[in-house]
Amino acid sequence: MPFVHRYDCLIVGAGGAGLYAALALSQRKANVAVLSKLYPTRSHTGAAQGGVSAALGNTEDDNPDWHMFDTVKGGDYLVDQDAAEILCREACDTVIELERLGLPFNRTEDGRIDQRRFGGHTRDFGKGPVRRACFAADRTGHMILQTLYQQCIKNDVTFFDEFHVVDLILTSPPPSPSPLQGEGRGGGGRCAGVVAYRIADGELHVFQAKAVLFATGGSGRMFKITSNAHALTGDGMAIAYRRGLPLEDMEFFQFHPTGIYKMGILLSEACRGEGGKLINGQGERFMERYAPTMLDLAPRDMISRFIHQEVRAGRGVEGKDFVHLDLRHLGEKVIKEKLPDITDFVRTYMGLDPVKDLIPVQPTAHYAMGGIPTTANGEAVSDEKNTVVPGFYAAGEAACVSVHGANRLGTNSLVDILVFGRRSGLAMADFAAKSDFTPLPKDPEADIRLRIKKLMAGAGTESVTAVRSDLQAAMMDDCGVYRSETGLKKAEKAIVDLRRRSAYLGVSDKGRQFNTELLEALELENLIDLAESTVASALARKESRGAHAREDFPKRDDGKFLSHTFAVKKNGAVALSYKPVVITKFQPQERKY
Amino acid sequence: MEVTLKILRFDPEADKSPHWESYAVDVLPTDRVLDALGEVKGKRDGALTYRRSCGHGICGSDAMRINGKNRLACKVLVKDVAPVITIEPMKGFRVIKDMVVDMEPFFAKYRSLKPFLINDEPVSKGERRQSPAARARYDDTTKCILCGACTTSCPSFWADPDYVGPAAIVNAHRFVFDDRDRAGEERLALMNGREGVWKCRTVFNCVEACPRDIDITGAIADVKRALLFQKEGTP
Question: Which of A156, A419, A525, A544 lies at a C-alpha separation of 20 to 30 Å from A174?
Fold first, then answer.
């Protein structure tokens, strides 16, 4: 028998979205617990550097409508504008609340929250850059994570640290055709809780809850070069997908233009927000040719493509696949005070000094715009008609509201986790107050027990490391910054092959305590499922929009594709359907910067 | 380049006590020690166990003893510690498996000094104001990532496991010297106790171990000074 716990509200994931939801619930005195596969302070929100946007107008004129316009345009008009309006309006109150909770923002001379420029953020509907990003040096995410965790401790929130979620319990499902895959058991059910694996001793725990939030983060580890933590294996998204729920807009994966060459470690857009420039192998500031108004502060999808174009045209540095980030002209004082962590990364990993040296950079897989589709209150939906799955919520990178559309603007991920994390928490409190527990099905942990047993007893001819690196290489080569029918077909075939190989994964560690090899095997299965949905969605979208750039279809096609992709796992294949974009204020236009 | 990783292994389900194992691995000089550990885990022994997440010194998961000093495995390059790299878990915590130690007592100490802003005064509109100078007063101690490298390098902590340790003090300092906070006195009183700041013998091991370059001994001195002024009745 597994251990069974009961909480009105259960949060899975302890990054910014999960912790803000937990905090909002604790402020309402709700009965809440948080599960995290890491210690909460290890969550990847802590790696966010540059800032969190809110049109406070502390240093120059700004307003939430301009922020909304930038978000919609930045997302290449695939953004749901009703959601974007909420995002940009509530950003201001949320940032102020965080300050009152203790977040140590940098300050202006008169003691207000200081603000800096960031990519794609403009004044007056695109006239020029605006200072909108509120920041705490270049560790804004770290300070958000710390502040939220501190306040959760203050409010006595219950934490289950190092509990790895392995399944979502949905009731009234149709019978499962394949217990190992568990597919087809979702769609239209009601959420009753989750199954989690306690890393310390390998025991399965069932958590019954009225409302469950997946705030499990992104899936950047499906790519070879990524800024993402090892933990970012898309667990929540993959679990929902295997339970028959749709994933929205998975073909949109953002490559951040300035990752440390070969390592992928992020060098914040704040570098360019403070005035840093990109330079090609010929010493040219090439962004002057591509984006005459915004220059190096054009959106990330565009700059990543332009870097690729420079490299392809032989203008990479030393003819190789990277360009230079130049911060030298900013001077030692600005670099030291506003970009201290960046300076530390560059020194530690490259032995360079940004005050004196040029920094080799290349695009790095950074952010999943897609995810579990939700309403603006975080309620997960099971189809393109927005049918809510009662009791199941998602927020943050794991979710798709959609406020980022086809390409997220810098700083908007932090705005997203805060605004929609909080909204989800409040919606869960209301839902839990008027709902009963959904009875648990018999043996809710049976499927996962079988899966773990199979992995532990696996024939062992395939290693997790080998299958994972082949997956990462296939996705990087054929589903990266540029895509084509030929490449995507190749990736599709590779994934089928990798899935076949994953049936022969062996876990050599036979222990129950802290078996990280088993965890990596479970995470790898998640990555394979997400890669499958990503490639299928990308193949079907025969246009170029935001981060999805098709060489064989270089133009945006609003006639056919001004709609969100919904990918569902059905009978071992991916079934796609589409949902229209919500347009309220801003009609689609050509995207120029 | 070929390097030898000499790793102190412990499997709680098989071993009575820890033992050394050596692995020769082929890595790039600019690889992280974490990458070298990945080589062993991925290709030689899948059971090798350590925590890791961000891989670039921000999340604080992979603090361990590397060549006798507390370091984050993702922030040390192989070339700087080659050719023989000894790897042990942090000292002073119960070892669960290989490099994984029980962090619970560490977080309990952190929580014991109220590491959160306390201020119930209403704010009528907008943010609380804070001058850049007031903000700078506690900047250094906001950088802490709770990796445990400082506390487990501290001889006072080794000698007395009940000592709250440098990491907890750093996080209390962050609020004591934040002019928006109203519970400084409470925290100072906690740190004035038997297991508080006076256990610090200014050995500076913590400063050397900190992967975030926090002036920890300086922060502890700030707290000691605040306590002394408090005793003399001056603000």
Answer: A525
